[in-house]
Design a protein that fits this description.
Oligomer: single chain
Number of helices: 16
Helix content: 25-40%
Shape: elongated
Largest sheet: 9 strands, mixed
Radius of gyration: 29 Å
Length: 503
């Protein structure tokens, strides 16, 4: 891993830098809602999973779901954050047609989870190297989701579906420690991997079960460092919030557009309005949604229908004892047990499904060879074809069989790629393909030596140049491989050629 480098955006009047903090909303994995027993099942007909509490019928009182509290604590522990034994629910007042109470029950002054920190691995981008950075978590609080307004069923009416109303959300708020579009996407990926590993959220972004609000601002170089030294937010530019982002690619596109938009306004002598904006993925631009409210605009006050939450430390420790192996721990184990690089270990441990697939491929085999084939060949193919790992045409055991043939010199790495392509096409297991097409590697040194002698005899001019131009050796290797149909063992070819040519 290389060091984190400044991300500079060139403007007409000088350089600018990005500063971002994210608010990630993760739907709690639970069968019932935060304050009612209504189902949280996805895909039900509109307004079927709605209790009287969710619909805010007069006289209905909320009752806290203990399991949702447990899931929030579990997530906080996974974020290495402070678990607050005292927390409180507040009413956040605003009006939406799909918010039947006219307020949202949330946590403001006293959240269930306090400060934490996670380490985020950033994949290589724009010719740069992979690196890692630490992002501070400010808080995690529980709150209820709103319903859904539907605008495309009638040209003159808006319909409301309250199935999501009252579903438990964990809002995970970061400090403004994120500095590039790639870092923002990597941060959400890391959070998603953690909550999936914990079983506290399924991370399904397509269903809206995990979505991010990105607070974007720009400043001159050096201002962020002053903020870190003093904690004074005035050193940072006015932020705009990009609302409800549910795609890693869209997150990056929206940030890049928004940063350029703000820089153009500032360089023209204007000022940035603090507002909430939406991203249009078709036009690849952001547009204003509403002015951004501050805390006082929501008129927070303690919810009179809910007592404060007081959590015993013993219960927190019970939950801690049940935590699974988390991505950072798995990455460290992959580095130690399999001898993988931090980057490869990070790629393979970031997702539980990928990690399990790799471990099955690597079981009893060369782990580095297994990692290369999983991350480069298989994942490269799946990404190019936009196929999920669960739908891979090559199973872990089948890929493991291919790797065994490489390791025992039955086939070369070059032949293996041809075999892999045939496996993808559905021709069967690697061993059967090799046998059917006669692809076994030639390891008989006598046979290889005969081919080498023929090539040397037929090319006296190249032989005469070999002393002055050692790179000619590569030409000879290519000719031998070509003559053998690519089946000659490359190491044996190199060894015999060196001996024959006196290198």
């Amino acid at each position: 891993m290389s060091a984190r480098k400044p991300y500079v955006i060139k403007g007409e009047t000088g350089d600018w830098e990005l500063v971002m903090g994210l608010e990630v909303h993760a739907q709690v994995s639970s069968n019932a809602k935060l304050f009612s027993g209504a189902s949280t099942a996805f895909g039900a007909d509109p307004n079927c999973n709605v209790s009287l509490v969710d619909a805010a019928m007069p006289g209905m009182l909320p009752v806290i779901n203990r399991y949702c509290v447990e899931q929030a604590i579990r997530t906080g522990l996974g974020l290495k954050a402070q678990i607050n034994t005292y927390s409180r629910f507040d009413r956040k007042n605003y009006f939406y047609p799909d918010l039947p109470q006219g307020y949202q029950i949330s946590q403001f002054a006293h959240p269930i989870v306090g400060e934490g920190e996670i380490e985020v691995d950033v994949e290589p981008a724009h010719g740069g190297d992979a690196y890692a950075f630490s992002c501070r978590i400010e808080r995690l609080h529980l709150e209820q989701d709103a319903g859904k307004s539907i605008h495309d069923m009638d040209p003159s009416s808006t319909y409301v579906d309250l199935n999501r109303s009252g579903v438990a959300l964990m809002e995970i708020v970061s400090m403004p420690d994120i500095r590039t579009p790639a870092e923002a996407a990597a941060y959400v990926k890391k959070l998603r991997a953690i909550v999936i590993a914990l079983g506290t959220c399924d991370g399904d972004m397509d269903k809206g079960n995990l979505r991010a609000d990105v607070n974007v601002s720009v400043c001159r170089p050096g201002q962020y460092e002053k903020f870190r030294e003093t904690g004074d937010f005035s050193h940072l530019g006015t932020r705009c919030e990009l609302k409800n982002m549910n795609s890693f690619r869209f997150i990056q596109q929206a940030i890049e557009y928004e940063a350029r938009r703000q820089i153009e306004i500032l360089e023209d002598g204007g000022s940035i309005d603090q507002e909430t904006r939406l991203f249009d993925p078709v036009k690849v631009e952001t547009r204003s949604m509403r002015s951004k409210e501050d805390a006082h605009d929501y008129r927070y006050f303690p919810d009179p229908d809910l007592l404060p939450l007081e959590v015993e430390q013993a219960w927190i420790e019970e939950i801690r004892a049940t935590l699974p192996e988390l991505p950072d721990e798995k990455r460290a184990r992959f580095e130690t047990d399999y001898g993988l690089s931090r980057y490869d270990a990070g790629v393979l441990s970031a997702d539980a499904e990928k990690a399990s697939f790799f471990e099955e491929v690597a079981k009893g085999r060369d782990p580095k060879l297994a990692a290369n084939w999983v991350t480069q060949e298989l994942f490269g193919y799946l990404n190019k074809q936009d196929i999920e790992l669960a739908d891979s045409p090559v199973s872990a055991s089948s890929l493991g069989g291919l790797i065994e043939l490489i390791a025992n010199d039955t086939i070369s790495g070059k032949i293996a790629k041809d075999v892999f392509a045939r496996m993808i096409e559905g021709e069967g297991e690697a061993a059967d393909i090799v046998e059917k097409h006669g692809l076994k590697q030639v390891t008989d040194t006598g046979a290889i030596e005969k081919v080498v002698d023929e090539i040397i005899a037929a090319n006296p001019e190249q032989v005469a140049q070999i002393k002055e131009k050692p790179k000619t050796m590569g030409w000879f290797v290519g000719q031998v491989m070509k003559a053998s149909g690519g089946k000659a063992n490359p190491k044996a070819v190199n060894d015999i050629l060196k001996a024959k040519l006196g290198l």
